[in-house]
Amino acid sequence: MRRYSFFLLSRYQECSRHFHPGSATSQFLFLFQFNNSLIQNLSSLSTISTRAFPDFSPKKPTIRDSELVHHISTTIKQSQSVPLRRILKPFESKFRPDHLIWVLMNIKDDYRLVLDFFDWFCIRRDPSLEARCIVIQIAVAAKDPKMAQELFCEFWTKPSTNVSFSFSRILEKLIYTYKDWGSNPYVFDIFFQVLTEAGTFDDARKLFNKMLNYGLILSVDSCNLFLSRLLNNINCPKMALKVFSEFSEAGISWNTASYNILIHSLCLIGKVKEAHSLLLQMEFRGSIPDAISYSTVINGYCNAKELRSMLRVLEDMQLKGLKPNAYTFNSIILLMCNTGRVVDAEKVFREMMFLGIIPDNVVYTTLIDGFSKIGNFAAAVRMYNEMQSQDIVPDFIAYTALIWGHCQNEKIAEANKLFNEMLSVGLKPDEFTYTTLIDAYCKTGDVKMAFSLHNEMVQIGLVPNVVTYTALVDGLCKQGDVDAANELIQEMREKGLVLNIYTYNSLLNGLCKSGNIGQAVKLMKDMEVAGIQPDVFTYTSLMDAYCKSGEMVKAHQLLREMLHKGIQPTAVTFNVLMNGFCMSGMLEDGEKLLQWMLGKGIMPNATTYNFLMKQYCVRNNMRAAAEIYRGMVYQGVMPNGNTYNILIRGHCKARNMKEAWFLHKEMVEKGFDLTFDTYHALINGFIKRKKYLEARVLFKEMRSKGFFAEKELYLIFADMNYDEGNIDMTLELCDEAIENCFMDKTEGRKT
């Protein structure tokens, strides 16, 4: 015994040298190797005692029974093509259940005859459990596992009307009949598989342990089936890990498929790093990882959103010469889309197609949804068109993502077309689809169509949620119909819907736009009573209302209140306040606000600067306007089209045509367009400076952009063309002047 203990200690030390003690996975793998080593050595030392299978001792027939059995056996052997029911008709009255087993003993070498005779008997009465087990043994010996499985399944699917067979009774008879009726151990594998497929896992474990007592270890394929069904049927990865360890201790030599199941189990419980470590240890254990092994770990990392680790495994997989499959690529593409790397996801998608893997609607939908969410709607449409060219039918998610994208880009007609197409192919839109369209119609001012969709979704049994109602409330408020919005909110309350911050903000913004500031302030207090804290949009809406009514002190108080509550103002908030200061003529306060923002590290945008520049231009203080512009550029804020239009008009008013023309050229180079007012300011400025060539170029450009001119300009350029003898152009300008300036009074509108 001391020698045996020393042997175990030496084996333990040898195994432990291969692993780092701090890793949970290493400890698991170490124990796994040590257990395998232990079992092997226990077997070699004959420390496990096994029992022999019992001898089958059937009841001996009497002389009369023996003659009958011999007669029947001889008759059916010689029957050849004659149906058994015909040749056995004379024996039916004398045939008893015991005779079945005795006849089977005489014909067991003729497998087809055994099945025919057994079927003949089963039509007339229920065979005993012993007889059933005998036929199963004969089937396995004849290498007909399918028939053996069917016979096993009949114990549950077609139970006897007179006798119910328990697992223990079946196993007892199976062991009892084993030695003399087949001696093929695979019969226990089949029984194990049937128990596993039936979901009777406890009985399957009992069978596994029982067989160990007879020195039999079930096949690794059967054990793999057991592991996989544990995952699929009861979704218990931890149980699969436990069984893996216990079966290893019993002597099961796991293969690649086994490790793949274990890796999948580890990934399911979130232990992806342990699964990865096991993948790296597979070759050391004698099992070569395959594409499924790597794909499972890749999918695990994808679910954990660990992009770098996933890419590392993918690289290792390719170095091993293994090609990723559709499952692998779908996981990678989904992760990249979920992390915003949709462009990279499409590159992976193209590589997938290059390798000859045909994409399905799932991967196309993933990319369409990904591109839509990052705002690259053109790419989403491109993927949709490609999907259709491949004759792949878009699913519900693809249509919904495209409809949402069209709505975000204010392409309501295209969204509605897709919506109708979705209905035509039999897909049913849900609340989100309808709400997306309703919100889009409300934002474009078509509240009537929005309510039509609302009624339609109610008619088909969909229940509008708080988001749906909020979109409708917002649409009504933007139209100035605050009373109807209040009625809709009352309807929401009656239906038990809890108003959220967006609902309150929509109504509050509507009240502010209609000038009902007092009601808006009361609504904000109601929000707080209802447990909903006002956000930056709430405060900004009220500040805008105060600014437009000239109540700058109250607007400024709201800003201080926001900061006191820890609500971070946005650029829109400061722009609202800046516009208020400028419109009230409080330019010094506006500049103080700008400096305060810069001092706090809050970066203004072009709109912030534009408000100040516009007011200085109105006051004809171009030096101050230019100073603001230089400060804007110094802070790294890029001027927009409005910036240039404001400055150009200001310089034209101050007759600084050289500066105005320079800004015009810079503006055009950057791709910005002049407005109607800017064109007129430049043209009039050049005419006053007698720069007729520049004026004429701008006048022609303005008309080519679809702008109408003021009647004075039409008359000036008509006179110019008449003096030059260009009668056709003179008449054309006169016609335009009459049509646009004298008849419809549509000066400045585009054609």
UniProtKB/TrEMBL annotation:
Single Gene Ontology BP annotation: RNA processing
Family matches, as SUPFAM superfamilies: HCP-like
UniProt entry keywords in alphabetical sequence: Repeat
GO cellular component: mitochondrion
Molecular function (Gene Ontology), one example: mRNA binding
Domain of life: Eukaryota
Residues spanning the signal sequence: none
Record Pfam families: PPR (PF01535), PPR_2 (PF13041)
Family: Belongs to the PPR family. P subfamily.
UniProt-recorded name of the protein: Pentatricopeptide repeat-containing At1g05670, mitochondrial
Provenance organism: Olea europaea subsp. europaea
